[in-house]
Flavodoxin (Desulfosporosinus fructosivorans), 480 residues
Amino acid sequence: MIMHVLSVRMSSAVKGMIRIMKIVVLNGSPKGDSSVTMQYVAFMQKKLPQHDFKIVNIAQRIKKIESDEQIFGEITGEIKSADGIIWAFPLYVFLVHSGYKRFIELITERAAGDIFQGKHAAILTTSIHFYDHTAHNYMHGICDDLNMKFYASYSAGMHDLFKEKERAKLLDFSQGFFESITRDAPAIKVYPALINQSQEYVPGTDLVPVKTHGRKVVVLTDSKEDNINLNRLIGRFGDLLSGQVEVYNLHSLDIKGSCLGCIRCGYDNTCVYSGKDEFIDFYNSKLKSADILVFAGTIHDRYLSSLWKTFFDRGFFNTHTPSFSGLQIAFLISGPLGQLPNLRQIMEAYTEWQQANLVGIVTDEHPNSAEIDGMLQELAQRSIDYSNLRYVKPATFLGVGGTKVFRDDIWGPLRFPFRADHRFYKSNGIYDFPQKDYSSRMQNYFLGLLVKIPFIRKEIYGKLMITKMVEPFKKLVAKI
């Protein structure tokens, strides 16, 4: 009895020594509390009830946060009093949702960066692992820019919460984060601060016009009047193509809002915004019908603007099917893209996933305007040449790997609700599972039996492997 009382008292004393932490969870889902990501946070709350979790719905309320500085001030007040920050969000087109991106821009615009300085931070995402690393790299970079003490990131598969092993991993991650706060663990910065070294771009007077051969060239931009270099890049590119370029500005387009994550488009690609703004008609009539599509933008933090992110998010009414297949795509960028390999990879991966051809990326980073003129000249020439040839270079891992991720999930857990994807994948041969390659299966079976015999195995792996592997290729080249 005495031992029991002592045990209870000791237990109470230990509990009294546990530091109760305030953790602010910045929710990047446009669905707010109904987000899958927030269910992972709910699991953390249930397993670690001694801590105070304050969930702030950012993406869902971004319009109010942007228009009402008092609300923004209330959020930054919560952050100021927090022991740790969890950036929690679902993946949206290689990155965070546009509303989350806008909030990050507001931090700079409203000089609120000091509030984040020194705060312990972690990243929690949910996805099917389609370019989750680019989103994590982006947010890690933002944490470094804000001088936060970044702990680590956790990329949960969408359905991991149903798996005991994965729940244990998430709990380990959560406890590790809290322990790092307790010991005030330092962080090693991974991403250096960006230095914009771009100088004023002044196009030359000499140019060699490139014949368009009737190709439809569309430039889409978010440029403003004070984006001098970007406007000049666009103007020079247009002049090189004899002015036969259609230029559209996202600021002039009626876009009621960003993607809501409602998956209304899943059945037949009909968006909840259909008939309510200009976006879908513009996308289908102006962009899909182009031969050459040029995206022109300025670097904002470690991406383009949140308006550009709205464009890419709203393009999800096509769900997981390519909408620019066969097009030539180019980028005109103002800002330090050379210091952002993560953003360059997003551009490359987006183009490959779209089954389009990346002609090139021209920036204003070069100090010599004549050199930039030469790059634009070549970009214009290649755009037309590639378009005439209908050329699309072979996909790299960026395109092949991404497509396979979608293939497997649309075949399996995401077939419902993404019925439109399933129909497209089925009719376009994207369900190219190796299990259906019966000739290879038969060959593997019989050769597998043969190499179990020692002298045959020695012969094949000792002498025949290299010569037999290249033999069919030699025969093909000889016939050609």
Observations:
- Strands lie at 22-27, 52-57, 84-90, 120-127, 149-157, 217-221, 245-249, 292-298, 328-334, 357-363.
